[in-house]
C-alpha cells in the first residue's frame, strides 16, 4: 500500500494513491464538522512551470529556508517568554500583547469595543483568499521544482475555520534530501513574507502611481457619513476637511491623531479643582475674545443654580489671567471664586467669528496661559465637563458651482477667515472620539469634479492593508512550532540534523517541543484576545 501526503497548513495524512498520476475523479468529503472541495485543474500547469524554471525556483526557495528558520527561532523565543511569565505568575506586563495587537493585527489595546463593518468583512475575505492562495502556490511550485506533482488542491471548512490543503505523494517526499524537503515546507511562509513586502511597497508607491488622477495629502475627503454620526447634519460626501481647532489636517491619519489628542485633553480634569480650572483643562485653553457689548446681551446663569444654557446656546466663562487688562467687575458681574460665579450663554455662530485667545489654538501641548484681548473685550472659554470637547471643524464644500471651477487645491489654500462660500466652519461639542470613526475619509481627492472613482484609492489602500496583516498572520502562524501547521514539518526535518541524539530521543524531544509550543501558543493568543477586547 502506498501513501499520499496531504498538506493542511503543514499537516500531512496517509491515503492509498500513488503520485504522480492524473486524477480524473475526486470525491469531496462532507461531514457534520468538516467539508472540502477538491480540484486538480492546476496540477499540470503548475508542474510544467515548476519543471521549466526549476533552477531559478530552487534558488528562490533556498532563500526562503533561511528566512523561515529565522522566523521559527524568533517565534519560539516569544513563546518561551510567555512561558516564563506564566511560571513566574507575572501578569502585569502586557507590553508583548500590546505590540502584537498593534503591529500584527493592526489594533490598539486602548480599544474599548471593537466593531467591524460589512465592508471590512469583505476586505478580510478577499485578503484571506489572496494570502492563502499565495501560500499554497509556494508549496506547489517548490514541490514541482523537485519533480513532485501535487494531486489536488482543496478548500475546506473544519467546524467554523476555513483553510486550504495540497495533496502530495508521501514516499516521494520521504525520498527527498533534507534541504529539498525544507524548501517545500518553508515555501508557504516565504511567499507570505514576500507578499507582505509587496503590499508595503505598493502602499508606499500608491500616491505616486495615482498622482495623474488623484491629489494626495492635501486634506482628507469625506466619502461617507454615518446616519448616526453627530456630524451627519454638517458634512456630506465630497467635503474636504481643512482643519480641526486651526490644526491643518493633511490626511486621514492626522484626523485620527488630532482627535486622539483632543480626547485625551478633554479627560484631563482633577479632583478638588474648581469648575473653571477643569474647564480650562478640558478646552485646552481655547478661548475667544468676546466684546463687552455681546457679554451684556448674553444670558447669565449662576453656577450655584441652573447650570445649563437654553437650546442652541453654549456656556462660556472668563479666564482669570494676569496679562489681560484689568476689567471692571461691575460691568461683567463675574465672580472667580472657587465654587461660585456665573457663566454666560452665547450662540456658537456668533462666537466663531471673533478673535481667538488662549494657548490652546495650535498648541495643544502648551503649559503657558496667555489670554490677551483688546480693551473692548475679554477672553472666554467654553464651559465643558469631563470628557466633553469643543472642536472647531473647518471644511470646504464643493456644493456651490463656483467651488467646482476654483478647484480643490485653490479652495484649501484660501484664507478661511475671508467670506468664502467654499469654506465653512462649525463647532462640535461632545465626546471627540465619537466622531473619529463615524466619518469615512480618504487622503485622496480626484482631480475631476465627478464622484466616479472617488472610492478607488480607499478600496485599494484597505485591501493592501488587510492583505499585509492577513499574510503576516498566516506566515507567523505557520512558523509556530505547533501541531498541524508548517512549523511541525519544519521542526521534524530540523531535528534530523541533531545526529548526536538517537532517533528515539529525537522523536521524544520533538513531541515535547511541539506540545509545549502548542500550549504556549494557545495561552499567548488567549492573552492577546483578552487585551484586545
Automatic annotation (TrEMBL):
Compartments where located: Endomembrane system
InterPro entries, per database record: MBTPS2, PDZ_sf, Peptidase_M50
Membrane-spanning intervals of the chain: 59-92, 104-132, 152-170, 182-205, 463-485, 509-532
Domain of life: Eukaryota
A single BP term in Gene Ontology: proteolysis
Pfam family name, one: Peptidase_M50
Protein topology in the membrane: Multi-pass membrane protein
Keywords, comma-separated and alphabetical: Hydrolase, Membrane, Protease, Transmembrane, Transmembrane helix
Gene3D superfamilies in UniProt: 2.30.42.10
Record-annotated Peptidase M50 domain positions: 129-512
Molecular function as annotated in GO: peptidase activity
Family as reported in the entry's similarity comment: Belongs to the peptidase M50A family.
PANTHER family: MEMBRANE-BOUND TRANSCRIPTION FACTOR SITE-2 PROTEASE, PROTEASE M50 MEMBRANE-BOUND TRANSCRIPTION FACTOR SITE 2 PROTEASE
Name under which the protein is recorded: Endopeptidase S2P
Organism: Solanum pennellii (Tomato)
Upper lineage: Eukaryota, Viridiplantae, Streptophyta, Embryophyta, Tracheophyta
